[in-house]
Amino acid sequence: MKFERFIKQIDVNYKQKISAANLPKKVLDKLDSTLSKDITTVRGLDFYHIVASVSQDFDNDTANAFEEYFKKKKFKDDAEATDIDNKYKAFIKQFIVLQQDVAQGAKIEDIRLSRILNREISDFLAWEVYAIAVSRSKKIKTAFEQLYKE
Questions:
Q1: Which has the least CB within 10 A, 69, 79, 105, 143?
Q2: Residue 95: phi, psi to the nearest 5?
Q3: What is the chain's alpha carbon radius of gyration, rounded to the nearest angstrom?
Q4: Measured between alpha carbons, how far is residue 57 from residues 19, 51, 126, 135 in Å?
Q5: What pLDDT score does 80 carry?
Q6: Rounded distance between C-alpha atoms, residue 77 and residue 67, angstroms
Q7: Over 80: is that where the pLDDT of 94 sits?
Q8: In this predicted structure, what is the pLDDT of residue 22?
Q9: Each residue's pLDDT tens digit, 11-40
Q10: How many structural domains comprise the chain?
Q11: Which residue range forms the structural domain that includes residue 45?
Q12: pLDDT at 75 over 60
């Protein structure tokens, strides 16, 4: 689905709301280009500022945006079975979160996540921020705000 179509579903008066919002210059400069993209290719920064300017319920609208995408997305589960042979290991395991666990839970390729974290790729895609938030039981808007709220 095109990002503009999604935004229009949230609010038919999206153009006025976006114009009235105080969006960062780097988001405004590429607004037309961003709106014409497929929603799964929109960068997190752009998604956050544009959706936040038109949405009354950021978490719900974001979940609706990517729900269908995740239904279609197929990932092979390459997780290795971890032997937890005693209650002490089981207890500690709940506190350990590895980068690989985050990637796997969010269905992001390990290599891509590493490249983002090492700043070889400039930003997450919006669906990746959503997926990380959901997989880590974090409020969606809170995750976007931590990354993009200025």
A1: 79
A2: -100, -10
A3: 17
A4: 19, 9, 16, 20
A5: 44
A6: 19
A7: no
A8: 92
A9: 999 999 999 999 999 999 999 999 999 999
A10: 1
A11: 3-148
A12: no
Predicted structure pTM score: 0.83
Q: Which helix (H) or strand (E) holds 125?
A: none
> Do the Cβ atoms of 144 and 48 come closer than 8 Å?
yes
Q: Rounded distance, CA 127 to CA 1, Å? A: 13
Task: Confirm if 68 and 21 have CB atoms less than 8 A apart.
Answer: no
CA distance 135 to 132: 5
Tokens of 147: 């990354």
Q: What's the distance, CA 27 to chain centroid? A: 17
pLDDT at 83 over 70: no
Distances (CA, A) of 1 to 26, 40, 42, 69, 71: 23, 8, 11, 9, 14
43 SS3 class: strand
